[in-house]
Design goal:
The complex is a heterodimer. Chain A is α+β, with helices and mostly antiparallel strands. Chain A is 34% helix and 8% strand. A 4-stranded mixed sheet of chain A has the order 2-1-3-4, with helices on one face. The two termini of chain A are 31 Å apart. The N and C termini of chain B lie far apart (54 Å). Chain B has helices spanning 20-25, 30-37, 40-50, 62-66, 91-98, 100-114, 128-143, 174-181, 210-214, 216-222, 224-229, 261-266, 329-343, 349-366, 372-383, 396-410, 412-420, 426-434, and strands spanning 77-82, 118-123, 159-164, 205-209, 231-232, 235-236, 239-244, 251-255, 280-284, 293-294, 319-324. Classes of the chains: A alpha+beta, B alpha/beta. At the A-B interface, helix 2, helix 4, helix 5 and helix 8 of A face helix 7, strand 3, strand 7, strand 11 and helix 13 of B. Bound molecules: flavin mononucleotide, iron/sulfur cluster and FE2/S2 (inorganic) cluster (FES).
Chain lengths: 212, 435
Amino acid sequence: MAWKTIDRNEPVVDAGATPVLTEAIRGKIESFFPRYPTKRAVLLPALHVIQDALGFIGWQAMKEVADLLEIHPSAVFDTISFYTHFWTKPRGEKVVTVCRSISCELLGGREVLEAVKDHLGIGEHETTGDGKYSIAVEECLAGCDHGPCLLVNERMHKCVKAADVPALLADAGNADHGLPRSDLFDGPVVDDDRDDGVIASTSDVVEMQDSN
Amino acid sequence: MGSYEPVLLKNRGVEGSCTLKVHRAGGGYAGAEKALKLSSDEVIEEVKKANLRGRGGAGFPAGVKWSFLPKDREKTILCVNGDESEPPTFSNRVLMESDPHMLIEGIIIAAYATRSQVAYVYLRVEFHEQFHILQLAIDEAYAAGLLGKDVLGSGFDLDVYVHRGAGAYVCGEETGLIESLEGKRGWPRIKPPFPAVEGAFGLPTVVNNVETLANLPHIMTRGADWFQSIGAGSSTGPKLFCLSGPVNRPGCFEGAMDMTCEELIYGDDYGRGMVDDVGVKAVFPGGISMGVLTGDELGMKMDFDDPRNFGLLGLGTAAAVVVDVETDMRDVLLNVSRFYSHESCGQCTQCREGTSWMYRIASRIAMGAGRIEDLDLLEQVSGRMGMMPGYSICGLPDGAAFPIRGLVQKFRTEYEEHMGRQRDGRAEAVLRVLN
Ligand SMILES: Cc1cc2nc3c(=O)[nH]c(=O)nc-3n(C[C@H](O)[C@H](O)[C@H](O)COP(=O)(O)O)c2cc1C
Ligand code: SF4
Ligand code: FES
């Protein structure tokens, strides 16, 4: 979304003056530079990398990434506040993202969402006391053929029934999708993919960067 | 229709369909090889001749769009629109899951035709599994010399990068996508300038949908005449249709654009009818933004033209969701109006306020506190927003107006009946909650 921001009822977490972006995180972010003609364009990938590594993007992280990309921290916050995916306060180890759009609703999506809330004892965009789970609610997840559906982190759960929810949430492996993964964003944060010719084999983009 | 031979989904369900090996075994990358031997203008001519109309919703011919690029440009950016957020659309997802190399091949052809040396695939963030599949396929293509320097030994260089979104419907709008790519909030831009002239990073830019691009390899190998032979009139070529809701066989189906909505729901090759044979009350046949059909209007053809005869905006994403007779249309109105009020980016007053008002009115109606005037009010608000009357920057509010106006006009009797049954004093109680 959208012009109405979510997740802003509580103050953005400020870690104080202690740096939060490790060398490894910074290296990972920098590995995206050759892909785009401007540093600002690396903001979305950078935010993904940070959220994957730290769990959320607090004010300190915003300031540091602003520095790295040579933009104002308010520009970082502005972008973050527009997108539902980014959290500015700690979220649970696992985020359950429930679809609330039309196809899922017609097949019982509302009941599924209620069951998730009941079972975890929290509301939308909240986190359980033990830090295990957060709930997010999204519009259509493009999985309408197997609605009602929800994501647990990266894993899509299909044709979920309200009655299945307790077992689904109790299953420790509910976030594993078992597919081969690319570690482009959240794999081990290492700098060497910049030299392997696969990811950063840019030709023109680098030139464009120079001429900008 | 039994004779339709799938093209876009030919590898769906085939073991290892995401691998280069399987893709190549089925003739993959022959289209790219062929294109790279032609001049870029020749490729554009062939695509124009095929009249490949955009599959992302607007139906604009791809070849024509490409020819708007300034002739003297030095750099071009290709953006692949994989934001796929229009409920209930999932055909890009199915394509990427079952044959990512078909998309990559399409990207090579489009990039070559538009002389782009970099392509960004904008993927909605919720496509996690699809991201991994696509990224691994891209890595594989680089390793095989299909991307990077000197693609297939042609001297043409192309880099393909996935750019992941972060949860915003409006980033599927082409200039919202460009802003998001540049690291900003996804606020659509005022046009002109059009992206073809000044798009991402100030450079000439082409935005095409995933499915549009997946057609290119086949146009290259089989020719424009073959493409024109599928379907009729200006609605030709292979097409993916999505079907969801309480049907027996929801899914993504490939066919020609000569079937009716009824066939899509009831056909043996498609939806196989409703669960428990319940009746159909309504269908949103082209994604919710195009508008709504009643159960008596299922004779509508799923092509680019016929939807207008039923008061719809167009074919849209050709994704149909079926509402059964037992569903309360107040809930449908509520769900649909909430979507737009949540997804409006807020730049334009008529869209920001209009979508919010419509949602609030719909909430009132859904809570049993509607007034007959509310129906008129909804119609009125829906007529005063959008790009078509010139009130807004992008097409989101037009996409809100069509379904909401359609629901009110086509199901007015039902809403009035509900209102007639409301208890006295209910309105006051609800208003206290809402305000
Ligand atoms: C609010 C809004 C959302 C859109 N979302 C998408 C989308 O998710 N995917 C898409 O391909 N096109 C979307 N579009 C259409 C794009 O603006 C654009 O027309 C399309 O990507 C062009 O590709 P095509 O010509 O290949 O269809 C959207 C348009 C609007 C107004
Ligand atoms: S019409 Fe709506 S969504 Fe589009 S730019 Fe304006 S406010 Fe944003
Ligand atoms: S409506 Fe739930 S995934 Fe599309």
